[in-house]
Task: structure prediction
Amino acid sequence: MKKTLLATVALAMLPLGAQACDITIGLVLELTGEAGEYGQAGAKSVEMAFRDLNDAGGVAGCTLKTDTRDSQTQANVAVDAATQLVQVAKVPAIIGGIISPMSIPILTSVTGPAKVLQVSPASSSPTLTALGRDGKTNGVFFRTITSDALQGVAAAKFAIDKGLKKIAIVHQNNDFGVNLVKEFTDPFVALGGEVVSVTPYNAKQSSYASEVTAAMAVPADALYLISDPVDGATIARTWISQGGVQKFLLNDGMNSDDFIASVGKEYLGEAYGTSSGTNPTASTDYFNANYKDFSGIDPAADRSYDAGALVGLAVAIAGGPDAAKLPDALRAAVDPKGEVIHAGKDEFVKALALIKEGKPIRYEGVIGPVSFDQYGDITGPFRLWQIVDGVVTTVGEMTTADVDAVKAQIK
Result:
């Protein structure tokens, strides 16, 4: 009786608006290693989303918190971190990883078997779709980025439109790189292009001279470099120093100031790339206006903000951190029949009130309105960009309809 009375008194003494409990969400992100730049930005984005939800009153009567672990861009470390979070910390959800070679083993070894929600803000491998199709995810995996099955189509059309009809490919020898090569090659050839060489490489080598020599065996209009900013810069410098044509096609992960600075903007005037795009909303404006002040990082990792917001809203819809309810609750956060909600404290106040009343919501985030298919994938536009005087500059967009039209030509 005394303990109950003391607890009641303690709750009564909390400041107005303060939360009486914490709900901790696990983050397994690449804070160091070759993907560290993106993991650090992603962590800050999730923290910003949780701050906004907490400022709006918290979810299910509690304060959202993060338990962030560094995968070090190593799969075994990622799995160990996720295992600790799920089995010891008992988190109801994990946000991560950033890149597919981290997200896939987390899913297959930890979150899938444990039936714990996992949301990746940046892992685009088609293997993640295949795992869902094969019934190996228990329906717990979602991502706020489009699959590389679609990015490959967008890159193929962009290359042809830019007159890059003979392509040499150098790619990471992992699930991401192998899949993107496949998803690019079929539409590229169907559109009249020719892949003159395909050269895999293993990460973290001190030199890629032999790989570049192999890739240059047949003359090409451009190099399609499927890499990360660290290894990619080494490969690009080697390609240039060996007399390779200074025209590049780049994957989404190469949209990096570090890559440009390391290679030299004077060599990248005809470097083109594709990234999962956005349909701008009020959330986009909010994020771009506030993220740098919060994080100290230039606007980036918008998809991580949405991942954080969706997980937080799902906890509210589920009525608490019940892992079994969170996948369905996450889908309910983007209910097409719900009232539209955008990012930020004021919008989340409205969202949490609607949830409390049992009314549906449709979160339209920083990347725009999305819905999840049966495998946790989203569809959306692709941003087409070029490096102009050292700055990644948007030069076009491919809509979902555009991508579908190209896919129809392949069949």
Summary: The longest strand covers residues 22-29. The first helix runs from residue 2 to 12.
